[in-house]
C-alpha cells in the first residue's frame, strides 16, 4: 500500500469514527427519542405476536419463525433506508448541509459513510430485537453468520439505493417526509413478498434477499447450498438498485446546486 493510499484509508477511518461518535452522541442526548424508536418496534412485534396467536392459533404458530425473521429484516431495512433519506433532510434543517459540502471529503463520500454507520447501528438494534423476539416466542433460531451476513448485505444494499434516491429528492423538493414513511411501509410488503411462487418478484428491491435469508435460517442452509444463479441474481439486483439510487442522488445534488437551494429548508 502506497503512502497516499494509506493516508486515504486513514482519513476514511477518521470520517467513519467521527460520524459514529456524532450518531452516538445524538442518541445519548435525546434518550426519549432513542428509546421510543426501539420500544416502539418491540411493542409493535408484541402486538403482532399476541394478536396473531389469539386470532391465527396453530396456523400463526407454524409460521412464527418467518414472522420473527421478517421483523428482523424489516428493522434492518427500514433503519438503513431512514438513515440515508432522513439524514439529508436533518442536515438541511439544521443548516449544516452546506458545511458538509465544503468539507475535505466529497459530499457523496460523507453521505455514503453516514449511510454505513446507520447500517451498522440498524443491525445492532435488530440483533438485540431478534434476541428479545426469540425470548418472547420461545423459538431460538440457528443463525450462521457466514451465510446470513452476505445475504443481509444483498438485502440492505438495494434499500440504501432507495435511500440515496429519496435523499436526493429531499435536496430538491425539501419536505417529502410523508413519502419517506410510505416507502418504509412498503418494506413490509417487499420483505413478505411471495418470491418463491412469483419469479418476477425477485427483481423487487430487498424481496429476493429477504426470501433467501428466511430460507437459510429456517432450513439451516449454507450460502453454498443455494443455486449459483440465485446468488448471482440477488447480488446483481442489489448492485443495480444501489447504482441507480446513487446516480439519482448525484444528479439531484447537481440540480439543487444549480437552483441554489442546497441548504435551503
Key descriptive features of the protein:
single chain; 265 residues; mainly alpha; 0% strand; globular
Kindly describe this structure.
By secondary structure, this protein is an all-alpha fold. It is built from ten helices and no strands.
Instruction: Please summarize the sheet with the most strands.
Output: none
What string, H for helix and E for strand, traces the elements in order? Answer: HHHHHHHHHH
Indicate the low-confidence ranges by residue numbers.
none
Radius of gyration over all CA atoms, rounded? 19 Å
Strand content: under 5%
The amount of helix comes to over 70%
Q: Alpha-carbon distance between the termini? A: 43 Å
Count the helices. How many? 10
What global shape is seen? globular
Structural class: mainly alpha
Report the strand count.
0
Mean pLDDT: 85
Summarize the structure.
The protein is mainly α and 265 residues long. The protein contains ten helices and no strands. The model has no long low-confidence stretch (mean pLDDT 85).
Topology:
Layout: H1 3-29, H2 31-56, H3 58-62, H4 64-94, H5 97-101, H6 107-137, H7 145-173, H8 177-191, H9 207-218, H10 228-259
Helix pairs in contact: 1-6, 2-6, 4-6, 4-7, 4-8, 4-9, 7-9, 7-10
Amino acid at each position: 500500500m502506497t503512502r497516499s493510499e494509506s493516508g486515504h484509508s486513514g482519513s476514511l477511518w477518521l470520517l467513519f469514527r467521527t460520524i459514529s461518535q456524532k450518531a452516538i452522541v445524538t442518541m445519548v442526548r435525546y434518550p426519549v427519542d432513542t428509546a421510543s424508536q426501539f420500544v416502539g418496534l418491540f411493542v409493535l412485534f408484541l402486538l403482532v405476536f399476541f394478536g396473531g396467536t389469539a386470532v391465527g392459533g396453530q396456523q400463526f404458530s407454524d409460521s412464527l419463525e418467518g414472522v420473527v425473521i421478517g421483523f428482523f429484516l424489516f428493522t434492518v431495512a427500514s433503519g438503513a433506508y431512514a438513515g440515508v433519506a432522513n439524514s439529508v433532510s436533518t442536515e438541511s434543517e439544521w443548516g449544516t448541509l452546506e458545511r458538509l459540502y465544503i468539507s475535505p471529503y466529497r459530499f457523496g463520500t460523507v453521505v455514503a459513510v453516514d449511510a454505513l454507520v446507520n447500517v451498522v447501528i440498524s443491525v445492532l438494534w435488530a440483533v438485540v430485537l431478534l434476541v428479545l423476539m426469540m425470548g418472547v416466542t420461545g423459538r431460538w433460531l440457528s443463525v450462521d453468520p457466514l451465510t446470513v451476513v452476505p445475504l443481509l448485505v444483498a438485502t440492505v444494499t438495494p434499500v440504501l439505493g432507495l435511500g440515496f434516491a429519496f435523499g436526493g429528492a429531499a435536496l430538491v423538493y425539501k419536505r417529502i417526509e410523508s413519502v419517506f414513511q410510505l416507502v418504509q411501509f412498503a418494506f413490509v410488503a417487499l420483505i413478505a413478498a411471495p418470491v418463491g411462487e412469483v419469479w418476477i418478484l425477485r427483481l423487487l428491491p430487498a424481496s429476493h434477499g429477504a426470501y433467501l435469508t428466511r430460507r437459510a435460517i429456517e432450513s439451516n442452509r449454507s450460502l453454498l447450498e443455494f443455486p449459483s444463479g440465485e446468488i448471482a441474481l440477488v447480488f446483481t439486483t442489489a448492485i443495480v438498485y444501489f447504482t441507480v439510487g446513487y446516480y439519482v442522488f448525484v444528479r439531484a445534488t447537481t440540480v439543487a446546486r444549480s437552483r441554489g437551494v442546497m441548504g435551503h429548508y
